[in-house]
Amino acid sequence: MRTLCVLLCAVLALPAAAAELKVTDDAGHAVVLPAPARRIVSLAPHVTELLFAAGAGAQVVGATQYSDWPEAAKAVPRVGGYTSVDMEAVVALKPDLVIAWKSGNRNQQYDRLQKLGIPVYVNEPRSLEDVARSLEQFGRLAGTPREAEAAARAFRARRDALAAQYAQRPALTVFYQIWNKPLMTINGQHLISDVMALCGGRNVFAGLPMLAPTVTEEAVLAAAPEVIVASGMGESRPEWLDAWRRWSALPAVKNDNLYFIPPEILQRHTPRILDGATRLCEQLEQARGRAPR
């Protein structure tokens, strides 16, 4: 009996084996890790930002260009751009996890990594809830669930507060312009369309099949949006937004509802999208005050 007790105590004293992690990514694939990832390569700026927000910034050993938030992300070694990933640079970093962007990276990029035995998680947030869920998933993958869950709770609370204030306000039709040449917008499956709904806006091109389709000027005029919101390339209002003023009968022009929101706070699938949402909600509320009575 004494010998059995000694053996049992010895077994109980052994360190527990790290629990295997298994999650399903946004492409529907199972991603299995033997333990939380310690060397993560991000293949999109929004992925980098989400990892830092989830408390996993210290594990990010590689990232693509424009991964510039938070400040610490700027120091992470670069592995090319999200559309032109340097596969050799990624492999050289010896990652135990790569996080890719479904609609931004090319499939063959992460297919090659998977063939090399490197686990790849494909991320594709299409709604505000998906942003919160991504935070939680990244926290699980990186072994920082406490920080990630706290970030997700804070995000949901802020989203819900905006919804309570604006979602039931009188609806306004909105054209969101990504770029001018070609003239690009977003459909109803895009995350920004979910932001519009949060603010009581209705995307005039929600029914188009492509996520980020090109449209014609004639289609915009026919849709007669009450509000036009543009992004552009940086912090400055693009000159082409005011080109719509030549169509004086367009409701958005008639009521001076031409607005700009910097792309980095509305086109990145991160907690900062609620900064852009707050601005959009305020702009739509201003537009409601300008509507003819």
Q: Give the CATH superfamily of the largest domain.
A: Nitrogenase molybdenum iron protein domain
Q: Can you count the helices?
A: 10
Proportion in helices: 25-40%
Q: What fold name stands as the CATH topology of the largest domain?
A: Rossmann fold
Largest sheet: 4 strands, parallel
Mean pLDDT: 92
Domains counted in the coordinates: how many?
2
Unreliable segments (pLDDT under 50, ≥5 consecutive)? 1-17
Distance between the termini: 90 Å
The percent range for strand residues is 5-15%
Annotation, overall tally of beta strands: 12
CA-based gyration radius: 23 Å
Structural class: alpha/beta
Q: Indicate the overall shape.
A: elongated
* CATH architecture group name of the largest domain: 3-Layer(aba) Sandwich
Which CATH class of the largest domain is shown?
Alpha Beta
The H-and-E topology, N to C, reads as HEEEHEEEHEHEHHEHEHEHEH
Description:
Residues 1-17 have low confidence and may be disordered. The strands form 4 sheets. A 4-stranded parallel sheet has the order 4-3-7-8, with helices on both faces. A 4-stranded parallel sheet has the order 10-9-11-12. It has a two-stranded antiparallel sheet with strand order 1-2. With 293 residues, it is an alpha/beta fold. It contains 10 helices and 12 strands. The relative contact order is 0.11. A hairpin with a 5-residue loop joins strand 1 (21-24) and strand 2 (30-33). The protein has helices at residues 2-13, 45-53, 87-92, 107-115, 128-142, 145-166, 191-198, 217-223, 251-254, 273-290, and strands spanning 21-24, 30-33, 40-42, 60-62, 80-81, 84-85, 97-101, 120-123, 172-177, 201-203, 227-230, 258-260. The longest helix is centred in the middle third of the chain and has 22 residues, at 145-166. It folds into 2 domains: 16-152, Rossmann fold (3-Layer(aba) Sandwich), CATH 3.40.50.1980; 167-290, Nitrogenase molybdenum iron protein domain (Rossmann fold, 3-Layer(aba) Sandwich), CATH 3.40.50. Helix 5 packs antiparallel against helix 6 and helix 6 (145-166) runs parallel beside helix 10.
